[in-house]
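> forwarded from #structure-qc
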């Protein structure tokens, strides 16, 4: 946990971050909060699914997923902090939609500066965020307490059957909340982008990480002499979950990417296009696919590999880091790329919130391009600009546009007389005031170094501390559980 504190301090005091309202700190806080929340809630999902499915093989070690879920109380406190930061303008994580008046009435000479964000404002606003996000996380934490109280000391089949009502209620709430939280917490970082698979994609990703943590904790306890009846049969079944959900994750990863890329709808492809323009994000995009799919597929497909503790432990460790990097790619680009844009609202050298609008080309609505970055300018997306010969002019709707007064005087000349690779008044380049040209990579302050490593290790340490402290409070095995004998003699 000390490394986490060091990472937080570094994210605040580093010179290149001081000009960015500590964007690196807040985005790392959001990333790790959501990632470890998913790992913790996986414990409850695992227990509820087996309770409703009349499973008994897991009873031997059910204290472990229960203990993992106790971290949800820490998560709730961090979510309250992030929410307070949104309400009090401490951070720019959701700067695209956090100021609806400025979005709708930017000084562009137009009544609507960003119709997509305005149309989503009944859902994407500070009040809804402050009610829904902390509310759902609080419900998750309360379910953790209820599960711990109800399932830790089951002594009869009657109590076992009564716990099914709690499990059924949790599954119902979880099915709704896990999608809504993924929309508000992560997908709203870029409010123009949407994916109907995003909630399920998030669920699959952090569930794999949750099973990986469960396996690693059990392997550690086994190595210390705890759980003498835990054997390769139990780990084999957990390995099958790790393998199965990795394949499920890959199915959603590929389905989301293929459908969006093939449809070639601008507000959908922009999410991928921006990441392809940043070398680090482009690398992580394909690297996480390989490590989160190819590795478990090739290693865990064999029966004996799931029964070898060292092999299973290695794959579990790789899944923990692989899916962390997957969430890193989802979270870190937008907040770190728009931070100067957020400063514009507070008296910096820009007049607009979401850039200028194209008044010359009536074929393209502002909502199609309001948040496009330099990445789209570089690639000259024909699907976005159409085939009407106005591809250059279409770039004037770029989000985070350049200086308003400067641009309106020269937009027409640039569209007629300059190649798209000289659109220096677009995207994030001008946000820095140093004349960045569009042929350069889109600017982002996202980092992947010691700061991210230390903060991740800090969260990891606190998660393990809470988990093992919860395990120390009672015996690891409930000798009165009616399914304990079956679980001890589990064989496949």
């Amino acid at each position: 946990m000390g490394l986490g504190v060091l990472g937080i301090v570094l994210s605040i005091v580093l010179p290149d971050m001081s000009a960015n309202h500590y964007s690196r700190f807040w985005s790392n806080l959001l990333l790790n909060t959501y990632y470890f929340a998913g790992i913790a809630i996986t414990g409850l999902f695992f227990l509820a699914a087996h309770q409703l499915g009349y499973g008994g093989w897991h009873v031997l070690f059910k204290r472990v997923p229960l203990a993992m879920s106790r971290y949800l109380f820490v998560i709730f406190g961090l979510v309250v902090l992030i929410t307070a930061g949104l309400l009090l303008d401490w951070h720019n994580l959701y700067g695209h939609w956090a100021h609806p008046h400025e979005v709708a009435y930017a000084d562009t000479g137009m009544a609507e500066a960003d119709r997509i964000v305005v149309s989503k404002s009944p859902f994407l606003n500070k009040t809804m965020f402050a009610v829904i996000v902390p509310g759902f996380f609080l419900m998750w934490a309360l379910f953790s307490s209820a599960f711990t109280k109800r399932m830790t000391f089951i002594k009869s089949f009657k109590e076992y059957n009564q716990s099914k009502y709690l499990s059924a209620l949790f599954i119902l709430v979880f099915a709704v909340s896990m999608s809504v939280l993924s929309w508000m917490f992560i997908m709203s970082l870029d409010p123009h982008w949407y994916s109907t698979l995003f909630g399920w994609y998030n669920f699959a990703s952090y569930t794999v990480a949750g099973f990986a943590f469960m396996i690693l904790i059990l392997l550690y306890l086994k190595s210390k002499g705890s759980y003498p009846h835990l054997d390769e049969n139990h780990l084999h079944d957990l390995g099958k979950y790790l393998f199965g959900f990795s394949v499920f994750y890959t199915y959603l990863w590929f389905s989301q990417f293929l459908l969006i890329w093939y449809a070639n709808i601008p507000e959908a492809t922009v999410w991928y296009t921006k990441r392809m323009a940043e070398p680090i994000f482009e690398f992580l995009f394909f690297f996480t696919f390989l490590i989160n799919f190819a590795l478990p597929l090739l290693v865990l497909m064999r029966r004996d590999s799931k029964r070898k503790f060292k092999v299973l432990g290695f794959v579990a460790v790789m899944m923990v880091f692989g899916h962390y990097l997957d969430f890193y790619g989802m979270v870190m680009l937008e907040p770190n790329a728009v931070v100067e844009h957020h400063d514009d609202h507070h008296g910096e050298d820009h007049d607009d919130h979401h850039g200028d609008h194209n008044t010359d080309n009536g074929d393209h609505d502002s909502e199609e391009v309001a948040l496009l970055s330099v990445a789209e300018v570089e690639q000259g997306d024909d699907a976005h600009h159409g085939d009407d010969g106005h591809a250059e002019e279409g770039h004037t709707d770029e989000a985070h546009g350049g200086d308003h007064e400067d641009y309106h005087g020269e937009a027409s000349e640039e569209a007629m007389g300059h190649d798209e690779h000289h659109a220096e008044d677009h995207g994030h380049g001008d946000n820095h005031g140093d004349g960045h040209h569009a042929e350069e990579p889109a600017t982002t302050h996202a980092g992947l170094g010691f700061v991210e490593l230390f903060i991740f290790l800090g969260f990891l340490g606190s998660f393990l501390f809470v988990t093992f402290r919860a395990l120390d409070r009672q015996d690891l095995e409930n000798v009165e559980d009616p399914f304990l004998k079956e679980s001890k003699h589990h064989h496949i």
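QC bot note: The chain has one domain: 2-8+22-336+445-488. The first helix runs from residue 2 to 13.
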